[in-house]
């Protein structure tokens, strides 16, 4: 591709970043990295009324968490700054005036026009819709009369009345609009801020953006942008509109589909690499069959022809599955490290701090089934503390009665107390023989033991688990279960 690839992620700080925003950031970043170009973050804070404090920090935190680094933008600066549009107002004013002097834009006085029973909100609404605006053809005398001598800050772009505006979108192909269907949109507002349309065109040009890759919802704005580029004599960048993201039911993605603000995935125990991999597949694919793919492979293969035109589907179950895949790739040490913040958050405070070496041994036992780090506390609780509260009736396995359960617990306790070698194989041999002597099936005998050791019917493999718990804990848990069960009978 000729020239340097420069792409941007241009969030508006109007709320917490969601999966759609970050997918846009991710695709731009991948494209930049594939072409050894630049990835720029630009904050589009021109809609002052809708600013939500903290949203930019949340956006940047989200990018950092996912290891999406930016070459220019907030915190890192760069040669094309400032990267906050609110700090670039002079630029937009100059361009708006230039458009006015060229006859491509005009001051609008609708807000100043007196009108009976017209409150402020109505006036605002009226001024944004251009349907009843006829300021475009005003003579200087009419302006003086209408404005009452007051300067108007509202500037509208004078859309050509004829012809078509065409874009050759790199994903959607050729799209065209009849100019007569476009209204004279506002480029400068009465608060002195530009609208998105003017600011985006100015900055994409001044920041030398080569490709605008953004959500499909912006496609209808593209003819406005192209007309602005042309009127200003700027070469437009290439456009690539990314497919929509839908829920499983085919409707626009929302919280209802399990899609939440990006920070919530972290709190819900999703690994950043898993989320990244999942998001990559929201509109892009390596081939028809590969789901789990490293960032480097994606970067190496990230070309726009692999982006789909059709909507991407957000499948919450697939995200959990993907997360499980990534959890299984961690070393015991890494998994233990990832679990610690969740244990610190969710375990009873008297169980903290956790014994890190013990956790490192527990981690591989859980790894096979874990789908989210959020399960950390629940699935390790009984390793740290005897489960005193479980219903001892659950010790009784199918086909057993109280007596046989009691005998099973006693025999197992004798074995476990006498044994010194807790290697899983040894434990299995010893307890299998005991179970046979008691004429219990493996399912029955080991079922009793599992409940005695954990208080639960489901756990990691029994003997590996006992090895990790060690003799003291195992014996004390089985003893405790025996005493509680005996006392209840
Ligand atoms: N500020 C717009 C947004 O929040 C960006 C649109 C664009 O990339 O042109 O999505």
Give me a quick take on this structure.
This protein folds into four domains: 6-85 and 245-313, 3-Layer(aba) Sandwich (Rossmann fold); 88-202, Glutamyl-tRNA Synthetase, Domain 3 (Glutamyl-tRNA Synthetase, domain 3), CATH 3.90.800; 330-384, Helicase, Ruva Protein, domain 3, CATH 1.10.8; 392-487, Orthogonal Bundle (Arc Repressor Mutant, subunit A).
Topology:
Layout: E1 6-9, H1 19-34, E2 38-41, H2 55-65, H3 89-102, E3 105-107, H4 120-128, H5 140-147, E4 155-157, E5 164-169, E6 173-178, E7 186-188, H6 196-206, E8 211-215, H7 222-232, E9 238-242, E10 245-246, H8 262-267, H9 272-280, H10 295-301, E11 312-313, H11 316-328, H12 332-346, H13 356-367, H14 376-384, H15 402-418, H16 424-437, H17 442-454, H18 462-487
Parallel strand pairs: 1-2, 8-9, 10-11
Antiparallel strand pairs: 3-4, 4-7, 5-6
Helix pairs in contact: 1-10, 6-7, 9-11, 12-13, 13-18, 15-16, 15-17, 15-18, 16-18, 17-18
Bound molecules: glutamic acid (GLU).
Report on this model:
The protein is mainly alpha-helical. The protein has 4 domains: 149 residues, Rossmann fold, CATH 3.40.50.620; 115 residues, Glutamyl-tRNA Synthetase, domain 3, CATH 3.90.800.10; 55 residues, Helicase, Ruva Protein, domain 3 (Orthogonal Bundle), CATH 1.10.8; 96 residues, Arc Repressor Mutant, subunit A, CATH 1.10.10.350. The chain has 18 helices and 11 strands. Helix 13 packs across helix 18 and helix 16 crosses helix 18. The model has no long low-confidence stretch (mean pLDDT 93). Bound molecules: glutamic acid.
């Amino acid at each position: 591709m000729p020239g340097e690839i420069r792409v941007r992620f241009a969030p508006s700080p109007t709320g917490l970043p969601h999966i759609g925003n970050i997918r846009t950031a991710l695709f731009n970043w991948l494209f930049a990295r594939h072409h050894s170009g630049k990835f720029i973050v630009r904050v589009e804070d021109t809609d002052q009324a809708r600013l939500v404090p903290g949203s930019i920090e949340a956006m940047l935190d989200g990018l950092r968490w996912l290891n999406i680094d930016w070459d220019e933008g907030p915190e890192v600066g760069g040669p094309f700054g400032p990267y906050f549009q609110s700090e670039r107002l002079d630029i937009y004013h100059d361009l708006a005036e230039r458009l006015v002097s060229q006859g491509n834009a005009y001051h609008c006085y609708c807000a100043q026009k007196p009108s009976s029973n017209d409150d402020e909100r109505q006036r605002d609404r009226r001024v944004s819709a251009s349907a009843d605006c006829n300021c475009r053809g005003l003579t200087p005398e009419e302006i003086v009369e209408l404005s009452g001598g007051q300067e108007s800050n509202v500037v509208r772009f004078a859309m050509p009345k004829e012809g078509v505006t065409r874009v050759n979108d790199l994903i959607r192909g050729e799209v065209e609009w009849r100019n007569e269907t476009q209204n004279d949109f506002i480029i400068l507002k009465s608060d002195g801020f530009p609208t998105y349309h003017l600011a985006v065109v100015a900055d994409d040009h001044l920041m030398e953006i080569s490709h605008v890759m953004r959500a499909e919802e912006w496609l209808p704005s593209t003819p406005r942008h192209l007309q602005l580029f042309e009127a200003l004599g700027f070469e437009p960048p290439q456009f690539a509109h990314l497919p929509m993201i839908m829920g499983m039911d085919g409707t626009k993605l929302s919280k209802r589909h399990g899609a939440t603000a990006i920070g919530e995935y972290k709190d819900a125990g999703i690994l950043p690499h898993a989320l990244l991999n999942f998001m990559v597949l929201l509109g892009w694919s390596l081939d028809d069959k590969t789901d789990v793919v490293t960032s480097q492979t994606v970067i190496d293969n990230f070309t726009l022809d692999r982006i789909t035109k059709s909507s991407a589907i957000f499948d919450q179950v697939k995200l959990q599955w993907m997360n499980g895949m990534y959890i299984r790739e961690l070393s015991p040490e890494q998994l233990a490290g990832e679990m610690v913040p969740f244990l610190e958050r969710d375990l009873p405070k008297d169980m903290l701090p956790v014994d890190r070496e013990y956790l490192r041994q527990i981690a591989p036992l859980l790894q096979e089934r874990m789908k989210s780090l959020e399960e950390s506390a629940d699935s390790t609780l009984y390793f740290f503390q005897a489960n005193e509260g479980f219903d001892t009736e659950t010790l009784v396995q199918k086909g057993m009665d109280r007596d046989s359960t009691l005998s099973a617990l006693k025999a197992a306790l004798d074995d476990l107390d006498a044994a010194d070698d807790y290697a899983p194989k040894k434990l299995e041999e010893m307890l299998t023989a005991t179970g046979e002597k008691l004429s219990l099936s493996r399912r029955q005998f080991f079922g009793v033991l599992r409940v005695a050791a954990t208080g639960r019917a489901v756990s990691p493999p029994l003997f590996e688990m006992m090895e990790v718990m060690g003799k003291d804990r195992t014996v004390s848990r089985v003893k405790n279960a025996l005493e509680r069960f005996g006392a209840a009978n």
